[in-house]
Design a protein that fits this description.
seven-stranded mixed sheet; 11 strands; four-stranded antiparallel sheet; globular; mainly beta
């Protein structure tokens, strides 16, 4: 079993930055691949960023490339999402997700462990 808890969301202005953090427990963290997804009002959950167990493989949704950075600290059992140059269209509930594996996963259906989500609101 894996428990995930997100933090760091909030209300910011266009162009501001936020750093989201996800703390994991229940299983050896280094055995998990991690991802961030988000769900905006009226939309389906969408992929944001992926990172493998070592941090050597990352992937991003096109709309956040160059603005968001995913990272992990296996010693602290955390994965972070640094979000810069935020835009109103980034407004969503952001979810941390995890699964055991050694490959590359970008579909929500491929993940079995989810956090409760943290709200990010970007005003214009």
């Amino acid at each position: 079993q894996v428990q995930l808890v997100e933090s760091g969301g909030g209300l910011v202005q266009t162009g501001d930055s936020l750093r989201l953090s996800c703390a994991a427990s229940g299983r050896t963290f280094s055995s998990l691949v991690m991802a961030w997804f988000r769900r905006a009002p009226g939309k389906e959950r969408e992929f944001v960023a992926f990172i493998n167990w070592s941090g050597g493989l990352v992937d991003y949704q096109d709309s956040v490339k160059g603005r968001f950075t995913i990272s992990r600290d296996n010693a602290k059992n955390t994965v972070d999402l640094q979000m810069n140059s935020l835009k109103p269209e980034d407004t969503a509930v952001y979810y941390c997700a995890a699964r055991a594996g050694y490959s590359w996963y970008t579909d929500a259906a491929q993940y079995g462990y989810w956090g409760q989500g943290t709200q990010v609101t970007v005003s214009s």
